[in-house]
Design a protein that fits this description.
Elements lengths: L10 H10 L2 H17 L3 H8 L6 H12 L1 H22 L5 H26 L5 H16 L4 H6 L26 H70 L1
Protein backbone atom coordinates (compact mmCIF):
# COMPACT_ATOMS: atom_id res chain seq x y z
CA UNK A 1 0.00 0.00 0.00
CA UNK A 2 1.34 3.44 -0.92
CA UNK A 3 1.76 5.54 2.25
CA UNK A 4 -0.24 8.79 2.24
CA UNK A 5 1.53 12.02 1.49
CA UNK A 6 2.11 14.50 4.27
CA UNK A 7 -1.21 15.94 5.39
CA UNK A 8 -1.97 19.61 5.35
CA UNK A 9 -0.57 20.65 8.78
CA UNK A 10 -3.57 22.58 10.08
CA UNK A 11 -6.70 22.73 7.94
CA UNK A 12 -8.42 25.27 10.20
CA UNK A 13 -5.41 27.56 9.92
CA UNK A 14 -5.43 27.08 6.14
CA UNK A 15 -9.12 28.02 6.00
CA UNK A 16 -8.55 31.12 8.13
CA UNK A 17 -5.81 32.18 5.71
CA UNK A 18 -8.08 31.44 2.74
CA UNK A 19 -10.89 33.68 3.96
CA UNK A 20 -8.38 36.41 4.86
CA UNK A 21 -7.21 36.74 1.24
CA UNK A 22 -8.32 39.52 -1.10
CA UNK A 23 -11.46 38.50 -2.97
CA UNK A 24 -9.73 38.15 -6.33
CA UNK A 25 -7.31 35.59 -4.87
CA UNK A 26 -9.92 33.38 -3.18
CA UNK A 27 -10.83 31.00 -6.01
CA UNK A 28 -7.27 30.09 -7.00
CA UNK A 29 -6.19 29.63 -3.36
CA UNK A 30 -9.25 27.47 -2.64
CA UNK A 31 -8.54 25.25 -5.63
CA UNK A 32 -4.86 24.98 -4.66
CA UNK A 33 -5.81 23.95 -1.12
CA UNK A 34 -8.25 21.36 -2.46
CA UNK A 35 -5.53 19.94 -4.73
CA UNK A 36 -3.08 19.70 -1.84
CA UNK A 37 -5.66 17.90 0.26
CA UNK A 38 -6.34 15.44 -2.56
CA UNK A 39 -2.62 14.75 -2.97
CA UNK A 40 -2.45 14.14 0.77
CA UNK A 41 -5.17 11.48 0.38
CA UNK A 42 -7.75 13.61 2.20
CA UNK A 43 -10.39 13.22 -0.48
CA UNK A 44 -13.41 14.14 1.64
CA UNK A 45 -11.80 17.35 2.87
CA UNK A 46 -10.68 18.14 -0.68
CA UNK A 47 -14.26 17.89 -1.96
CA UNK A 48 -15.59 20.05 0.89
CA UNK A 49 -12.96 22.72 0.29
CA UNK A 50 -13.52 22.74 -3.48
CA UNK A 51 -17.24 23.36 -2.82
CA UNK A 52 -16.60 26.45 -0.69
CA UNK A 53 -18.31 29.51 -2.16
CA UNK A 54 -16.36 32.66 -2.85
CA UNK A 55 -17.64 35.31 -0.41
CA UNK A 56 -19.59 38.26 -1.74
CA UNK A 57 -18.07 41.69 -1.16
CA UNK A 58 -20.43 42.29 1.76
CA UNK A 59 -19.65 38.91 3.36
CA UNK A 60 -15.94 39.46 2.79
CA UNK A 61 -16.24 42.86 4.48
CA UNK A 62 -17.93 41.28 7.51
CA UNK A 63 -15.17 38.65 7.62
CA UNK A 64 -12.55 41.39 7.48
CA UNK A 65 -14.15 43.08 10.48
CA UNK A 66 -14.21 39.77 12.35
CA UNK A 67 -10.44 39.49 11.90
CA UNK A 68 -9.36 43.11 12.29
CA UNK A 69 -12.01 44.35 14.75
CA UNK A 70 -12.87 41.12 16.52
CA UNK A 71 -13.69 42.88 19.79
CA UNK A 72 -16.37 44.95 18.05
CA UNK A 73 -17.90 41.87 16.40
CA UNK A 74 -17.88 40.05 19.76
CA UNK A 75 -19.67 43.03 21.32
CA UNK A 76 -22.34 42.88 18.60
CA UNK A 77 -22.86 39.14 19.12
CA UNK A 78 -23.15 39.68 22.89
CA UNK A 79 -25.56 42.58 22.36
CA UNK A 80 -27.68 40.47 20.01
CA UNK A 81 -27.85 37.63 22.52
CA UNK A 82 -28.81 40.06 25.27
CA UNK A 83 -31.55 41.58 23.12
CA UNK A 84 -33.02 38.16 22.29
CA UNK A 85 -33.04 37.24 25.97
CA UNK A 86 -34.68 40.48 27.09
CA UNK A 87 -37.31 40.28 24.36
CA UNK A 88 -38.10 36.69 25.28
CA UNK A 89 -38.54 37.65 28.92
CA UNK A 90 -40.58 40.71 27.98
CA UNK A 91 -43.06 38.59 26.00
CA UNK A 92 -43.34 36.34 29.04
CA UNK A 93 -44.03 39.37 31.22
CA UNK A 94 -40.70 39.16 33.03
CA UNK A 95 -38.88 42.20 31.65
CA UNK A 96 -39.78 45.87 31.40
CA UNK A 97 -40.07 47.78 28.14
CA UNK A 98 -37.21 49.98 29.30
CA UNK A 99 -34.95 46.92 29.42
CA UNK A 100 -35.93 46.01 25.86
CA UNK A 101 -35.25 49.57 24.69
CA UNK A 102 -31.84 49.62 26.38
CA UNK A 103 -30.85 46.27 24.85
CA UNK A 104 -32.05 47.39 21.40
CA UNK A 105 -30.06 50.62 21.69
CA UNK A 106 -26.93 48.68 22.59
CA UNK A 107 -27.40 46.36 19.59
CA UNK A 108 -27.93 49.27 17.18
CA UNK A 109 -24.89 51.07 18.54
CA UNK A 110 -22.76 47.94 18.07
CA UNK A 111 -23.85 47.72 14.42
CA UNK A 112 -23.27 51.45 13.90
CA UNK A 113 -19.75 51.21 15.34
CA UNK A 114 -18.88 48.29 13.07
CA UNK A 115 -20.22 50.04 9.97
CA UNK A 116 -18.12 53.10 10.84
CA UNK A 117 -15.07 50.86 11.18
CA UNK A 118 -15.88 49.26 7.81
CA UNK A 119 -16.08 52.71 6.20
CA UNK A 120 -12.49 53.36 7.26
CA UNK A 121 -11.28 49.88 6.32
CA UNK A 122 -12.94 49.53 2.90
CA UNK A 123 -12.11 53.01 1.63
CA UNK A 124 -13.55 53.65 -1.84
CA UNK A 125 -15.52 50.40 -1.80
CA UNK A 126 -17.56 51.63 1.18
CA UNK A 127 -20.42 53.16 -0.79
CA UNK A 128 -23.88 53.66 0.74
CA UNK A 129 -25.31 50.46 -0.75
CA UNK A 130 -22.48 48.24 0.47
CA UNK A 131 -22.59 49.73 3.97
CA UNK A 132 -26.36 49.31 4.19
CA UNK A 133 -26.15 45.66 3.12
CA UNK A 134 -23.24 45.12 5.51
CA UNK A 135 -25.32 46.55 8.35
CA UNK A 136 -28.13 44.10 7.58
CA UNK A 137 -25.71 41.19 7.28
CA UNK A 138 -24.04 41.95 10.61
CA UNK A 139 -27.36 42.36 12.40
CA UNK A 140 -28.84 39.19 10.88
CA UNK A 141 -25.76 37.03 11.49
CA UNK A 142 -25.38 38.23 15.08
CA UNK A 143 -28.90 37.13 16.08
CA UNK A 144 -28.88 33.80 14.22
CA UNK A 145 -27.29 31.08 16.38
CA UNK A 146 -26.44 29.12 13.22
CA UNK A 147 -24.52 32.09 11.77
CA UNK A 148 -22.76 33.39 14.87
CA UNK A 149 -19.83 30.92 14.63
CA UNK A 150 -19.30 31.82 10.95
CA UNK A 151 -19.37 35.53 11.78
CA UNK A 152 -16.94 35.23 14.69
CA UNK A 153 -14.61 33.02 12.63
CA UNK A 154 -14.73 35.41 9.68
CA UNK A 155 -16.07 32.76 7.29
CA UNK A 156 -19.34 34.13 5.97
CA UNK A 157 -19.84 33.53 2.24
CA UNK A 158 -23.05 35.43 1.53
CA UNK A 159 -24.78 38.57 2.63
CA UNK A 160 -27.86 38.27 4.79
CA UNK A 161 -31.01 40.32 5.04
CA UNK A 162 -32.51 41.34 8.34
CA UNK A 163 -36.07 40.01 8.28
CA UNK A 164 -38.79 42.06 9.91
CA UNK A 165 -37.26 43.98 12.76
CA UNK A 166 -34.52 41.67 13.93
CA UNK A 167 -34.20 39.46 16.99
CA UNK A 168 -37.88 39.67 17.96
CA UNK A 169 -38.68 37.54 14.90
CA UNK A 170 -36.99 34.62 16.64
CA UNK A 171 -38.77 35.10 19.97
CA UNK A 172 -41.36 32.48 20.87
CA UNK A 173 -43.89 33.76 23.40
CA UNK A 174 -44.75 31.53 26.30
CA UNK A 175 -48.07 29.76 25.83
CA UNK A 176 -50.58 30.49 28.57
CA UNK A 177 -54.21 29.61 29.08
CA UNK A 178 -56.26 32.65 28.12
CA UNK A 179 -59.86 33.43 27.42
CA UNK A 180 -60.78 33.95 23.74
CA UNK A 181 -61.23 37.68 24.36
CA UNK A 182 -57.85 37.96 26.09
CA UNK A 183 -56.21 35.99 23.28
CA UNK A 184 -57.70 38.32 20.66
CA UNK A 185 -56.57 41.37 22.61
CA UNK A 186 -53.09 39.93 23.00
CA UNK A 187 -52.87 39.16 19.28
CA UNK A 188 -53.96 42.69 18.41
CA UNK A 189 -51.40 44.11 20.84
CA UNK A 190 -48.63 41.99 19.32
CA UNK A 191 -49.75 43.07 15.83
CA UNK A 192 -49.64 46.74 16.82
CA UNK A 193 -46.24 46.41 18.49
CA UNK A 194 -44.84 44.51 15.51
CA UNK A 195 -46.03 47.19 13.09
CA UNK A 196 -44.61 49.93 15.29
CA UNK A 197 -41.29 48.14 15.66
CA UNK A 198 -41.03 47.60 11.91
CA UNK A 199 -41.79 51.29 11.29
CA UNK A 200 -39.13 52.37 13.78
CA UNK A 201 -36.63 49.94 12.29
CA UNK A 202 -37.22 51.39 8.82
CA UNK A 203 -36.82 54.92 10.16
CA UNK A 204 -33.63 53.91 11.97
CA UNK A 205 -32.21 52.43 8.76
CA UNK A 206 -33.07 55.59 6.85
CA UNK A 207 -31.48 57.74 9.55
CA UNK A 208 -28.33 55.62 9.51
CA UNK A 209 -28.17 55.87 5.72
CA UNK A 210 -28.63 59.67 5.90
CA UNK A 211 -25.87 59.85 8.50
CA UNK A 212 -23.47 57.96 6.25
CA UNK A 213 -24.30 60.24 3.32
CA UNK A 214 -23.82 63.32 5.51
CA UNK A 215 -20.44 62.00 6.66
CA UNK A 216 -19.31 61.54 3.06
CA UNK A 217 -20.53 65.02 2.12
CA UNK A 218 -18.75 66.52 5.12
CA UNK A 219 -15.53 64.77 4.11
CA UNK A 220 -15.90 66.09 0.55
CA UNK A 221 -16.47 69.64 1.79
CA UNK A 222 -13.53 69.37 4.15
CA UNK A 223 -11.28 68.29 1.28
CA UNK A 224 -12.62 71.15 -0.86
CA UNK A 225 -11.96 73.63 1.96
CA UNK A 226 -8.39 72.33 2.28
CA UNK A 227 -7.87 72.78 -1.46
CA UNK A 228 -9.22 76.32 -1.42
CA UNK A 229 -7.15 77.18 1.63
CA UNK A 230 -4.02 75.95 -0.15
CA UNK A 231 -4.88 78.03 -3.21
CA UNK A 232 -5.53 81.07 -1.02
CA UNK A 233 -2.17 80.60 0.70
CA UNK A 234 -0.44 80.35 -2.67
CA UNK A 235 -2.23 83.49 -3.89
CA UNK A 236 -1.22 85.34 -0.72
CA UNK A 237 2.39 84.30 -1.18
CA UNK A 238 2.32 85.41 -4.82
CA UNK A 239 0.81 88.75 -3.76
CA UNK A 240 3.51 89.27 -1.15
CA UNK A 241 6.22 88.51 -3.70
CA UNK A 242 4.64 90.83 -6.27
CA UNK A 243 4.38 93.66 -3.73
CA UNK A 244 8.03 93.14 -2.85
CA UNK A 245 9.04 93.33 -6.51
CA UNK A 246 6.99 96.48 -6.92
CA UNK A 247 8.51 98.06 -3.86
CA UNK A 248 12.06 97.29 -4.98
CA UNK A 249 11.33 98.63 -8.50
CA UNK A 250 10.02 101.89 -7.08
Amino acid sequence: MVPPLAAVPDLEHELDALYALPLDEFTKARNDLSARLRKAHQADAAVEVKALKKPTLVAWSANLLARERHELVAELVDAGARLRDVQQRALAGKAAQADVAAAATREREAVRTLVAAARDTLGERANAQVLDRLSQTLRSAAVDPARVPELLAGRLTEELRAVGFGPLEAVTPRRRQQSPAASRAARERVKELRAEAMRLAREASEAERATREADREAARLHAEADRLRAEADEAASALTAAEGDLSRGA
